[in-house]
Amino acid sequence: EHKRVWWKEATFYQIYPASFKDSDGDGWGDIPGILEKISYIASLGVDAVWLSPMFDSPQVDMGYDVSNYEAVYKPYGTVQDVEKLIEACHAKGMKLILDLVINHTSDQHAWFQESRSSKDNPKRDWYFWKPPRFDEEGKRIPPTNWRSYFAGGTWTWDEHTQEYYLHLYDKTQPDLNWENEECRKAIYDSAMRFWLDKGIDGFRVDTVNKYSKVTSFPDAPVTDPSSDVQPAAQFWCNGPRIHEFIKEMNNDVFSKYRTYDSQPLVTVGELSLTPEPEGVLEYVSAGVKELDMVFQFDITHLGQGPPGCDSKYDFAEWQLPDMKRIVKKWQTFIEGNDGWNCVFTDNHDNGRSVSRFGSDAPEYREASAKMLALCFAAQTGTWFLYQGQEIGMINAPKDWSIQEEYKDVESQNYWLEATRVSEQGTDPTREERIAKGLQLMARDHARLPFQWNSGANGGFSTGTPWMRAHDLYEEINAEAQEKDANSVLSFYKRMLRLRKEHKDVFVYGSFELLDLDNADTFVYRKVYRQKTALVAANFTPLSQRLPRPDKDMKLLVSSHSKTDPDELQPFEARIYIDY
Ligand code: TEU
């Protein structure tokens, strides 16, 4: 049985500051806007807020490119505003965690500015600098052939000191050199203690398994001969010193702090590209003292090409059994050990779950939002919700221009690359395929302004929003749903209540998958001692046979107001219990 701790039973609500609420009409969401909506957030029944980066930043990667950890991006507000937010959350009984983005900084960070200023600057070694190589024709080439996340290579040439620097993400996001102890200590002070001392309750730790690189910097094997950059995650992910670094971070910093109500701090790491359960346990087993839990991205990879290379937005068909296999793998991975798990379908890096896993057609989008809420609310682990999920927000309309309306650096880079190879004729259909992939899975979809009401820009801003508001804000918005007992919002609140009331079974129970091969319904059982719950969810727009509940179980909840004893209606989901 799992030891009980607050953060296992808590539901977290992620806020993306740019897109939540603009209080001053400059088109950007801000901290005062979040403060205005604090009662709304608390009314959902969530226990903690995760705020995506609000630090000072040139916003090339929407704040995941930090230029000063100890300052707030001006349009978002001030350090004092964040202090007010910490207080306001605590006054409502909610905890607040911040994003910890420490694999890289922005190239505008003072550390990098110093580092790039000369080869003998004391901070030169805080980043990875390498001399060039030369090919047979004497042409300058980068130190390795690694492919970066946002398309292109991982090395950028710096004229000033005639060396390359490393970046796994955009060229304006140079990787910090964790091999350098002074650099690590500066990270702990500036990015962590500065905010912990102000009373935050923990961190969501960005890219947590990428701090240690294979520092001999070998070339990756050529898997794509048509490209000069190759997937190379084996050299920058889960590297040789990663566990040493995270243990040090925990020992020197995390373990020294408590939450505002004197409980253990919480840390949730972002652990991509670590598919094997055993490898994950090395990070989250309570005994190893690294992280409390990590996000696993298998679920968000449904429909994407292989991670770590150029096929992310090359849509790949998937079936419901694929999703079931993933859920089962992570639901059962913490059985019999002291690790923990995260449950989520949405975040700021993915298309909306209704559009990806359900249906965003007008007649089905509410039903699928509720079905997904129910299907995930009964799973073991800590539940993370992303802003707008609770009102069933959907992807941007398909007729929006990718070039004009999509703002994300990743989308734009993929789009440029796809149009280029199409023009060159090397892959004439790539442009069309990538367009389709972006329309479904681009990170932009989650970043549309929150739809508060039917006013201009969905009530998000009185100015011109940095990203266009969804065409459907009159149909999908929080204000209308607050008044409607049958809305997606009301259903989320109900599921959050039920999850608390039935936490033994939902949060801590063991998981058993039924009928893996059924491609229409997702059915599983949760068991805690003498208590059993049966969850059945219809992922199709057709009626489906309802699997017979065991013994004489009683209906706890259905996502539809009228239920049929033998059939699940389109996108209906139910829970039966026997206690
Ligand atoms: O994402 C880290 C990351 O590597 C991927 O899991 C993620 O899917 C990303 O979208 C790459 O396609 C984190 C942040 O969540 C993301 O917003 C940042 O862009 C990234 O780090 C760089 O800081």
From TrEMBL:
Catalysed transformations (reactions): Hydrolysis of terminal, non-reducing (1->4)-linked alpha-D-glucose residues with release of alpha-D-glucose
Keywords: Glycosidase, Hydrolase, Maltose metabolism
Keyword Hydrolase included in the entry's annotation: yes
Domain Glycosyl hydrolase family 13 catalytic: 14-430
The keyword Repeat is assigned to this record: no
One example of a Gene Ontology biological process annotation: sucrose catabolic process
E.C. number: 3.2.1.20
SMART domains in the record: Aamy
InterPro entries: GH, GH13_cat_dom, Glyco_hydro_b, O16G_dom_2
Domain of life from the UniProt record: Eukaryota
GO molecular function term, any single one: sucrose alpha-glucosidase activity
Protein family per UniProt: Belongs to the glycosyl hydrolase 13 family.
Protein name (database record): Alpha-glucosidase
